[in-house]
């Protein structure tokens, strides 16, 4: 055990950066009186939606189907078997990295028949360099703060005892909820006269925070010195 004085500090960093990705959720629906017809319509609309998304190529970083359901709609809640229609839903999730194409993609998806679009949800990739940069800045601030305390006492740092990561978190400055678009009952081909105008979307600033707690050893302080 050492009897060297210890200086305990906390270092924090807050970075404001532009988002790297935008997440969209797309729900494709159908409702028909016949189960097979409902399923066939759902397959067609799902394929049309996927083809539209894939046409944007590298602008889409990730595309996956989150789930599918076909459920009967009853005429009366208390009478089993009295079915008035069958409703089908496919849930598609995608990650967009080209924000220049995002506005056009959102409006074109929203123009598809019985298609619902939720988003964009702005964010950073899990392995983003921003998190590492924030952690380094937080550690650097801890060292500077400990050195400042030591100098105020007429001492100097001699070693690091412990450095603990207090955690990394991120959030967005914008407080508005993601936009939701409900489609109509017709869709125009790309480049057609009735093509919807691309909506202008402004990326929400991402705020990344990092904090560390550290303990340093120091030389004995000179408590008789005058504090300037």
From TrEMBL:
Gene3D superfamilies named in the record: Protein of unknown function (DUF541), domain 1, Protein of unknown function (DUF541), domain 2
Pfam families reported in the protein's UniProt record: SIMPL
The protein, known as: DUF541 domain-containing protein
């Amino acid at each position: 055990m050492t009897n060297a004085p210890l200086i305990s500090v906390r270092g924090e960093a807050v970075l404001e950066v532009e988002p790297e990705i935008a997440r969209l959720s797309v729900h494709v629906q159908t409702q028909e009186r016949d189960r097979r017809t409902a399923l066939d319509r759902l397959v067609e609309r799902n394929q049309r939606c996927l083809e539209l998304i894939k046409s944007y190529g590298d602008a889409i970083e990730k595309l996956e189907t989150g789930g599918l359901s076909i459920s009967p709609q009853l005429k009366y809640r208390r009478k089993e078997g009295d079915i008035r229609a069958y409703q089908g839903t496919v849930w598609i999730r995608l990650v967009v990295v080209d924000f220049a194409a995002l506005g056009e993609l959102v409006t074109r998806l929203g123009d598809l028949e019985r298609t619902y679009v939720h988003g964009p949800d702005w964010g950073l990739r899990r392995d983003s360099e921003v998190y590492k940069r924030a952690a380094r800045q937080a550690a650097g601030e801890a060292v500077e703060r400990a050195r400042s305390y030591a100098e105020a006492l007429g001492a100097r740092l001699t070693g690091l005892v412990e450095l603990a990561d207090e955690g990394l978190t991120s959030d967005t400055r914008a407080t508005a909820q993601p936009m939701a678009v409900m489609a109509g009952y017709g869709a125009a081909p790309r480049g057609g006269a009735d093509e919807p105008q691309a909506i202008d979307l402004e990326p929400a600033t991402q705020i990344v925070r990092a904090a560390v707690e550290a303990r340093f050893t120091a030389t004995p302080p000179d408590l008789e010195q005058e504090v300037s």
